[in-house]
Amino acid sequence: MGMATIFDYLILSVLRAYKYKPGFFRNKFFDEVSGAILSQAVYVPFTALFITAFKLNWKYKLCFSLYFAAIEKLFISIGIFKTRTWRTCYTVALIFFFFHLSDVWLRLLKTGNSLIKKLTLHNVVQLLKIHSLFFPLEVPGILSFGIGRHHSWKEQLKVEPLYASVFALITTWAALKEKMNIKLSVLFLKAALDRVLVKLRVIKAKPIYVLYIVNTFTLAAASIFKKWIDELEENHEQ
């Protein structure tokens, strides 16, 4: 889900290669984001997890890739999905690659590859940060991201994931260190940075302490996820 979120940020938010219109919400921004979340954070990652868990071969990977391509074509025909520079052949190739990447990623994770363990933790923390900000805070209007006095939804779609990614790096580093004094220092640093961003009007928060709550929750969760990732390697060695 973390990798799919990064991909969606680049292709949807930055390059605007395609657009979702599922019709779930009247607000066009919420509607587009909900379509992206269901696709990149639910359907494709869950299918990859299923394929990896049951060790399915390339034939199944290809069949599922073609299945998603067929769904995409159907959505295009009924107006739920609109392409700009995107092509369905990209969908087949990238999803097929993603399914193979999922298998390799799990093998490296179980064998204790240091880089993969760190990337996994960062991806989890980033995903948690994004969704703990968006649904409970941005949707009801408690929090917004952008440039200047007025923050458009398009700005939020670009700025919020970038903000979450940078802060996820700091949180991941603190979780890896496993020292309470470092974790407390990071929480104070993040609080100070949030205040600076509020002053610069990059963030609007009513009230600002909601960000402190999210920061504390994310760091506590990161420590738990690190423990689970380490246990995955230990169970494999046994």
What does this structure look like?
With 238 residues, the chain is mainly alpha-helical. It folds into two domains: 1-109, no CATH class; 111-238, no CATH class. Helices cover 76% and strands 5% of the residues. It has helices at 2-14, 28-53, 58-78, 88-110, 114-138, 153-177, 180-199, 209-237; strands at residues 18-20, 81-83, 143-145, 203-205. The strands form two sheets. A two-stranded antiparallel ribbon has the order 1-2. A two-stranded antiparallel sheet has the order 3-4. Helix 1 (2-14) runs antiparallel to helix 2 (28-53), helix 5 crosses helix 6 (153-177) and helix 6 crosses helix 8 (209-237).
Q: What's the β-strand tally?
A: 4
Instruction: List unreliable stretches of 5+ residues.
Output: none
Overall, the morphology is flat
- Strand and helix order: HEHHEHHEHHEH
Biggest sheet, in brief? Answer: 2 strands, antiparallel
- Overall average residue pLDDT: 88
* Structural class by SSE content: mainly alpha
Individual helix count: 8
Count the domains.
Answer: 2
The proportion of residues in beta strands is 5-15%
Terminal residue distance: 28 Å
Helix content: over 70%
Topology (elements, then pairings):
Layout: H1 2-14, E1 18-20, H2 28-53, H3 58-78, E2 81-83, H4 88-110, H5 114-138, E3 143-145, H6 153-177, H7 180-199, E4 203-205, H8 209-237
Antiparallel strand pairs: 1-2, 3-4
Helix pairs in contact: 1-2, 1-6, 2-4, 3-4, 5-6, 5-8, 6-7, 6-8, 7-8
